Automatic annotation (TrEMBL):
Organism: Sphaerotilus sulfidivorans
One example of a Gene Ontology biological process annotation: chromosome segregation
Protein name as annotated: Chromosome partitioning protein ParB
Keyword Amino-acid biosynthesis applies: no
SUPFAM superfamilies (UniProt xref): KorB DNA-binding domain-like, ParB/Sulfiredoxin
Cellular compartments per GO CC: chromosome
Domain ParB-like N-terminal: 36-130
Keyword terms of this UniProt record: Plasmid
Amino acid sequence: MTKQRLILPNDGRPPMPMPAFSNAPRSVAPAGRRLVHLAVDLIDAHPLAPREIYTERMIRERADDLRAQGQHDPIHVIPNPDTPGRYLICDGWTRVQACRVHGALDTLLAEIHEGLSLREAAWFGYEQNEGREQQSDYDRAMFHEKLLADGETAEELARRGGFHKSMMTFLRAYAKLPAGVLDLVRAHPQKFGSRVAYELHRLHEACGEAAALELATEFATHPDDLPVRWLLDRVRELRAQTREAAPAEKKAAPAWPAHQVYDSAEARGYYRRRDGRIQLSLQLAPQHREAFAQGLEQLLKTLGEPASGDPV
């Protein structure tokens, strides 16, 4: 059954019902803008969506608002380049889900932006979200990961996002966290800022997944709402304990380089050198032994006399 929509007067009067619309887009555009009423089932998710977290509570509350107050502002879409007659969301996906999941409205007023690329449309939504409380560092980080995979550079992300490129080190830590920790991040996005994600990533690398998950769980669920400083101190302590407990590693001696091998009737053995050291092991034919020994002794005498005074 088609539901009625509401018109919101700007003179203080209560909302008034207005007739529902068919699935065909219905234009209500002022000059210079293309505004139409779109059926919610014609609107698709954006592949480079700037937000990741949409909680059930968030969608349910938005549905309640739409039922009680109607739609205040238009959503923003672009034509779906792969499916004529359908649209990709730029901004307003929470309202679309509220209508689909909870049946708040059958149609939504939408501004259609012609000529925007997928990437530009995604940045449009990102900039709209930056002014909203629900936007989290995790949302930002996952948006950047999508753009990096799509060919965007870290320098361009920093420029468009309005932050120093060194911030990417912290934001990219989310993608390196184990799955269990990420589940906690999604459940408590405002608790797990980029600095917290970076420190948990360092703990994961140094102490393993179990240590990172245990600390993240305590940080997220502790009844005293632990501050970030507490987590930073605990990461430092745990990493130090791991370093102290680790057995000292023996420094392996550098390998000898390939040596010269002698294998003939005159001499058998090898000669090699490394870092100022020389190894020589030869078995000489009887007729060569005396001459070789005398020549070697004469060479060694140029280095000084042996400490014992005995022949070398």
